[in-house]
Amino acid sequence: MIIDSYNRVHDYLRISLTDNCNLRCFYCMPEEDYDFTPASRLMQADEIATLAGIFTANGVRKIRLTGGEPLVRKDAAKIILSLSRLPVELTMTTNGARLHEFTDVLEEAGIRSLNISLDTLQQDKFTLITRRDIFPQVKRNIDLLLNKGIRVKVNMVVMKGLNDSEINDFVAWTKDTPVHVRFIEFMPFSGNRWTSNKVLSLHEILHGINAEYDFLPLKGGANDTAKGFIVPGHAGTFSVISTMTEPFCSTCNRMRLTADGKLKNCLFSQGETDLLTALRNGEDVLPLIQQNIRSKAKELGGQFTGKLEDVHAELINNRSMITIGG
Ligand code: SAM
Ligand code: SF4
Question: Which parts of the sequence belong to the Radical SAM core domain (predicted)?
């Protein structure tokens, strides 16, 4: 098992397939021009399979593919199918734009649950946030998966003054649609124009929903990042991921492998361990993994605490979200 110095067992690995993307969400990408990593510096399909095999042999039970946008990678189908042969629950976070091209692959890989990002239900606002005019395509793909009986969690990053007025529209969506909406507190990453006054807190989100709906808490799993709720009688549910105001680090079981093969033990960790170069040099990577996880900070990469007023984005040393893999 892979265990840190706070006795947290790490059995959930997120693998970023690429830092490339077909959308340009401003909260995820750096503001300045950004050159995507050339293919030769990315983990190749066989290297991803080898590394994933080492993690699963050492206790990893769940793998999430992410990015960038995992489905823009040319060999995405090959990677999904090869990882589906491992003894893990395989899932993915995607912006949904290309899902219609992958329904057969998802079925063959046995993927029954997906996270799809959608920050607004309004077409013009979607274009404003993502700088691409493909709202109908994403919405259609969400419906396509729901009609196939796949469980869909929708990630909505809440940003004050931009899309917070739509929170109850998302809750209304759960009335007749079995969709699981996750409201995510806006997080600071390199170059993403984060300021604390753009964050709508867990407390504020629930307060706004309560003005229109009565809701009940849902029983969560031991390592859940989302606090779940249901409006009685609704087909779907909603939850809040409160990284910024009520972090859930004490039960963290997550590790992240960037598309260029670096292991990060936290979204906000400063250090990273280069597993890809070690693998290419024929070194044993397991001791490197264990060492990296043992050095994991107790909370939020040791860079800030769960008090918004203490967060100074300019002092946080990190990559941009698109290069980490959310
Ligand atoms: N391209 C895929 C997608 O958009 O779902 C996967 C990668 S994306 C980086 C993973 C998740 O991180 C998305 O749900 C996205 O909304 C979220 N995310 C990106 N930047 C964020 C930020 N600054 N604060 C909170 N969530 C963020
Ligand atoms: Fe691309 Fe996802 Fe980042 Fe948007 S959030 S730019 S879709 S990686």
Answer: 5-226
User: What is the rounded CA–CA span in Å between residue 100 and residue 140?
Assistant: 9
Q: Is the CB of 268 under 6 A from ligand 1?
A: no
Cβ 181 under 6 angstroms from ligand 1: no
CB–CB of 116/96 below 8 Å? yes
Tell me the average pLDDT across 3-27: 96
Give, to the nearest 10 degrees, the angle between helix 286-294 and helix 45-57. 70
At 255-297, the pLDDT tens digits run 999 999 999 999 999 889 999 999 999 999 999 999 999 999 9
Residues paired with 152 in a beta bridge: 114, 179
* Residues 6+ positions from 32 with CB-CB distance below 8 Å: 191
Mean pLDDT estimate for the chain: 94
The tokens 């401003």 sit on which residue? 26
Amino acid at 238: F
Among 294, 297, 257, 295, CA closest to 275: 257
Residue 116 contacts residue 69 (beta carbons within 8 Å): no
Euclidean distance between CA atoms 268 and 2, whole angstroms? 19
**Token reading at 255:** 């590790």
157 lines ligand 2 (CB under 6 A): no
What DSSP element (H or E) covers 39?
none
**Residue 313 confidence class, pLDDT cut points 50, 70, 90:** confident
AA letter at 112: R
What number of CA atoms fall less than 13 Å from residue 249's CA on the CB side? 23
67 pocket-lining for ligand 1 (C-beta < 6 Å) = yes
Instruction: Give the predicted TM-score (pTM) of the model.
Output: 0.96
Domain ranges of the chain: 12-324
Mutate to test the pocket of ligand 1, among 155, 198, 239, 300 (most ligand atoms within 8 A of CB): 155
